Predict the 3D structure of the following.
Amino acid sequence: MKRKKILITIDWFLPGTRSGGPVRSYANMLDHLGTYYDFYVVTRDTDFLSDEVYSGIQSNAWNKINDHTQIYYFSKNALTKKNLKALFDKTEFDAAYVNGIYSWYFSILPVLLLKKHPNVIVSARGMLNPQAFSVKPLKKKLFLTIAKLFNVYKNVKFHATNTDEANHINRIIGKRFEVKIAPNLPRKIEHLNIEKRVLKSPLKLVNVARVSIEKGTLKMIEALKTTQTDVMLDIFGPIYDEAYWEKCQMAIAKLPNRITVTYKGFIESALVLETIKAYDFFILLSEGENFGHSILEALSVGCPVIISENTPWRDLETKGIGWDLNIDDSKETSNVFEHISKMNQVEYNEMSKQAFIFAKRFSEDEQLLIQNKNLFL
C-alpha cells in the first residue's frame, strides 16, 4: 500500500528548539507516525530569535533526515509568497498540516495558497483559546474578523488537542467547520524505571518554560513568599520580554533569605528529562496550556507537578501525582507549599512512583496513536 505524504508548515523546527512546545509536538508526531506516513516539513533555516543558520543543513533545498522525514529550510531572503507557492506546486502530498493561526508565511499563506487542496488541516495550537488573547488581543481579533469576512478557512479542517479547544475553535471560527480531536503525542518513554529520590531541605523546584506573562513566571516567584520552608527554585527557558524579566528580578530580590531563585538560561530539548530528574517538584503556574509537554515530561521521570488548573492535566491530587491550582488564589498555592514541606520520604516515593506510572500509561495509550493517525485520513 502506498504511504501517504504529509506536508507540514511551521515557523521553526528541529534542530531548533527555542520556540517551545510546537517543535516538541511535531517532533513527537514524526517519531510516532513515521511508521505510517512520509513527512515533508517546510520551515525556516534559523531558530526562534536567532539569525544564525543551522549548521549541517542545506538552505532552500530538501534535507533528508531519515527514511520518513524531509525538511525544507527556507533562508530569510528566499522566504517569499512566490517561492512558497512554487515549492507547494512542485511537491506531491496527500494532506497539508498547517501549524498555528497568525504566522504570515507558515499559517496564513499556506491556507490561502492551498485553498484548492482537498485535505488541509490547521492545528490551532491553543491560539484560539481564551487565555491566548491576553497577548496582542486587538491584532488577533482583527485578523480573525477579516478571515471570517473573506472565508479564508473555506474547506479547511481544524485539529484540536481536546474537547475544550474544539469548542473554542467552533465558537470563534464557526460551528460548520470540522474539528478533529487528537491529544498531542508525548516523547517516547524509553526507560522503564525511575531513580530513587531523596527528599530533603531545601525543597528543589524546577520550572521549564519561557519567561513570560502567559507562563506565569512572576506569579510563580511571588507565590514563593508564602512558604515557611527553605526552597530552591531553578528557572530554565528563554527570556522573551526583558521588561517583564526585570519585574521578576525585583520580585526575587524581595523574597526572604530562605528562598533561592536562580535563572539557569535556555535548556536544549534533549537535556530536559535528565535535568528535571534532579529536582523534587516541577512547577508551572501558567495562564493556560494547550498541552504542556514539560508537565508530562516531568511526570515521566517521576517528578510530581504543581501547575495551573488551566491545562488538560486535571485532578492531579486525586491521582496522587501533584496539584492543579487556581493560580489567582494565593491560599491554594500556600497550602501546597506547606503540605510538601511536611511530606515524608515514604509519601514522596509513592507520589513519584504514581507520576511515572501515569505518564507511561498515557504515552502507551493505543487510542492516542489512532487519533493522531486519523488526522490525515
Observations:
- The first strand starts at residue 4 and ends at 9.
